[in-house]
Amino acid sequence: MGRLRRGHQPLDQMEKGVLDDTAPLAGLLRHALIIGGHASSEPLRQWALSELNGYARTDAEIPDYRRVPAPIQADSISPAWQRKGERISVLHLPEIARDVIKEEVPIPWGVGYLENLITRTPTDEHVKIDLPGGAELRVLMSAKYRERGIS
């Protein structure tokens, strides 16, 4: 079996891509996947696959670097007022949600999805991600405010 010429081996290609700011991350991860196979490194292969495909459908724990600190914010409206991006303290959440809802957002998606999300976001805006459990939280809080007569 012939050897690949220097510069065409996966490690060389990965090194070249890492030094190129325009190289897509997905391509670099595919090189890591190949290198993991050549090195018989199942942890490297599994990590590269999880980064490519995301962590949502795997048994792998979402790494700490994929947990982003994020304030809880909400848009709300009533007949008397309208608020956009209002910051909400965890202490204002219903008691049942305080241990579940954190000021942290896990990022379980693969890099292709993340790159697409960044590309679709206008340059003058931040990427917006829904709070995990946000829909359920809205239902709980709306019911809580209706019970108190707050609209």
User: Quaternary status of these chains?
Assistant: single chain
Number of strands: 4
Major sheet strand order: 1-4
Structural class: alpha+beta
Order of helices and strands: HHHEEEEHH
> Could you list the spans in which at least 5 consecutive residues all have pLDDT below 50?
none
- Overall shape: it is elongated
Number of domains: 2
Radius of gyration: 22 Å
Largest sheet: 2 strands, antiparallel
| Straight-line distance between termini | 74 Å
Beta strand %: 5-15%
Overall residue-averaged pLDDT value: 84
Number of helices: 5
Tell me roughly what share of residues is in helical segments.
25-40%
Features:
151 residues; alpha+beta; 2 domains; two-stranded antiparallel ribbon; two-stranded antiparallel sheet; 13% strand
Structural description of this entry:
There is one protein chain. The chain contains 5 helices and 4 strands. The protein is 39% helix and 13% strand. The longest helix has 14 residues, at 25-38. Strands 1-4 form a two-stranded antiparallel sheet. Helix 1 runs antiparallel to helix 2 (25-38) and helix 2 (25-38) packs antiparallel against helix 3 (42-53). It is elongated and about 70 Å long. The mean pLDDT is 84. The chain is α+β, with helices and mostly antiparallel strands. It has helices spanning 10-18, 25-38, 42-53, 111-120, 134-147; strands at residues 67-69, 72-77, 82-88, 104-106.
